[in-house]
Amino acid sequence: MDELISILKEIHPDVDYSTATNLVDGKILDSFDIISLVAEIADTFDVVISAEYMIPENFNSAEALWNLIRKLQDDD
Amino acid sequence: MLFTSYEFIGFVVLLVALYYVLPKKLKWPLLLLGSYVFYYFAGWKFLFYIFGVTGITYVAGLLISANKTRSDLQLKAMKGQDLPKDERKRFKEANRTKRRRIMAVGITIALLVLAVVKYTNFTIHNINSLLTVFHISKQLNFLNIALPMGISFYTFQAVGYVIDVYRDRHEAQRNFFKYALFVSFFPQLVQGPISRYGDLSKELFTPHPFSGRVVGRGLERVIWGYFKKLVIADRILPAVNTLIGTPEQFKGMYVFAAMMFYALELYADFTGGIDITIGIAEMLGIPVKENFERPFFSKNIAEYWRRWHITMGTWFTDYIFYPISVSSPMLKLSKWSRAHLGEKAGKRVPVYLASFVVWFTTGIWHGASWNFIVWGLGNFVVIMISQELEPLYRKFHKKFDTSGSTTYKTFQVGRTVLLMSALRLFDCYRDVPLTFKMFGTMFTTWNWGSIGDGIFLQLGISRADYVILALGTLLLIVVSMIARSGSVRDKMEKRLPMPVRFGVFALLVIVILIFGAYGKGYDASQFIYNQF
Q1: Can you tell me the distance from the alpha carbon of B303 to that of B297, in angstroms, rounded to the nearest whole number?
Q2: What distance in Å separates residue A64's CA from the closest CA in chain B?
Q3: Residue B225 falls within a domain, yes or no?
Q4: Which of B351-365, B380-394, B496-510 has the lowest mean pLDDT?
Q5: Yes or no, beta carbons of B317 and A76 under 8 Å apart
Q6: Which own/partner contact pairs does B507-512 have at CB distance under 8 Å and 24+ positions apart?
């Protein structure tokens, strides 16, 4: 989780990811940010987030994103 | 049957009345019948296209869903058999590949139909131009294919459905006729919105009981839509046609006038059409996704595109931008570019490549011509420049505090209006070089002095028309400003008693009847987005 937070911090350093729950709905992360994030996650966690998982619910909070990463890791 | 024809109004009145009179079971079949009758009036031959696209995507959806159900059951059974994880994974992956293939076949056939009817003659035109360039006298003959009404919209809607079934967002619809209604639902058949099955299906098939409030609110929206279309868009149309139809005569300041007039016409035409669409659906108790969120109030072009033709934008994002940008070749490219071009520049490569594809597709989706392709790529360039200038903007805002500044907000809105209107010039002139040339004359031909020479009164609209247009536009702006803090109809419902609300909309109807551009002798114009 800490690694994920530091990736997120690189994109928007001023956001408190421990409390933020509307990263996409609140237009904090745009599609450009999400693509950078997916590339970073692929590198760091060796997990590919395919297009079918690109829904706001999966990116609205660091926790939701972390759960998705773990789910995809388990599927592997 | 145009939205602006008496036949269409009669058709809607009859359909809404029948919908509420018929027993519950017959409500959605009535909508299907009505949708196909509506489509029949556009040309009976076009029924084959919509029926074909419906059939192909229906079968694809069913096959994907059946495979998913079967493989899930088998996976469940495998869990009990204590098989190695690898074997389960292989099984899962093999079935996933099967589903992906079915999806690919389904959407390829549907998109091929669209490509053949929409782009064959454009391709032939380009081949002929190339043959001429290479001094080859042979020319290919153009095919006699008419573009079926709404094909770009319903094909996208059907393709989105198949992808969503593949992505397991919802199950496939087993009832062919219900699915056919989803694809052909008549109010949105002509110019969208492009609905998702998950959003539309439930309410579409639910039998809604009559509610005077629901029908009334829908009607209010319809009236507002007709006001925009008939009082504003169609009234300014003759002036736009004159200005862009004779470019040799109208340069400089007149190009600027054409640009602003066309922006107003397009906005009133498209949003008016969508108001009519959403209003009719509302009258039937069916909520349809909003397609606009006051786009001209946007701070920048990227935001504008999140607020203009929203359902098309999200379609492109979900089904083209994301799949391309997170595809495995793109992730490899991202890794490579970050290693070789540096972290910052490398990160941009996949995003910019995917954006390029999206904007190229957006352009060509709007029409089979280079004008639309260049228009799409123009949007791409402006958005990329704005993205690249982001650090500069941040520095500027750090130095000068513009938060809450009305002047700065007005500047941003003005910039959006001018940029988007300028890009839309590609819709207007007959080819790309002429568009660039005419745009250039705004800076090279300084004829603002002739603004009072009376030429504006010779463009096909009178002084009275300008007054009506000015008042209509003012009303449009005021309503948009009020809508910033929520639905105008909700506010009216809360604050105004029913007779007053009735009076307001009755007055609007009278205004449409008196000042609307319609009737015999007037060429009631097609909606601009019909042709896309």
Answers
A1: 9
A2: 18
A3: no
A4: B380-394
A5: no
A6: B508/B223, B508/B224, B508/B227, B509/B223, B511/B227, B511/B231, B512/B223, B512/B226, B512/B227, B512/B230, B512/B231
Which of these, B425, B423, B424, B453, lies nearest to B438 by C-alpha position?
B425
Give the predicted TM-score (pTM) of the model: 0.89
Q: Does A76 touch chain B (CB under 8 A)?
A: yes
Whether residue B60 is found in the same domain as residue B162: yes
State whether B273 and B304 are in the same domain. no
Kindly report the three-state secondary structure assignment for every residue of B106-142. Answer: HHHHHHHHHHHHHHHHHHHHHHHHHHHHCCCCCCCCC
**Separation between Cα atoms, residue B408 and residue B400, nearest integer Å:** 11
CB-nearest partner of B326 from A43, A50, A75: A50
Query: What is the interface size between A and B, counted as CB pairs within 8 Å?
Result: 45
One-letter-per-residue 3-state SS of chain A: CHHHHHHHHHHCCCCCCCCCCCCCCCCCCCHHHHHHHHHHHHHHHCCCCCHHHCCHHHHCCHHHHHHHHHHHHHHC
First-to-last C-alpha distance (Å) of chain B? 17
pLDDT digits (tens, 9 = 90+) for B294-334: 999 998 888 899 999 999 999 999 999 999 988 888 888 88
Q: What is the dihedral of CA B374, B380, B384, B386, to 10 degrees?
A: 90
Whether B176 maps to a domain, the answer reads yes
Residue positions counted in chain A: 76
Residues B149 and B138 reside in one and the same domain: yes
Residues B27, B175: one domain? Answer: yes
Q: Where are the alpha helices (DSSP H) in B424-462?
A: 425-428, 432-444
Chain A hits for B170, CB-CB cut-off 8 Å, are none
CB contact under 8 A, B321 and A36: no
Q: Are residues B419 and B481 in the same domain?
A: no
Enumerate residues 6+ apart whose C-beta is below 8 A from B285. B203, B206, B208, B209, B211, B214
Q: Residue B354 domain-assigned?
A: yes
Number of domains within chain B: 3
- On whether both B461 and B407 belong to a single domain, the answer is no
Question: pLDDT tens digit string along B423-465?
Answer: 999 989 999 999 999 999 999 988 888 888 888 898 888 899 9
Which structural domain range is residue B180 located in?
6-210
User: Same structural domain for residues B407 and B508?
Assistant: no
Q: List domains and CATH numbers for chain A.
A: 2-75 (1.10.1200.10)
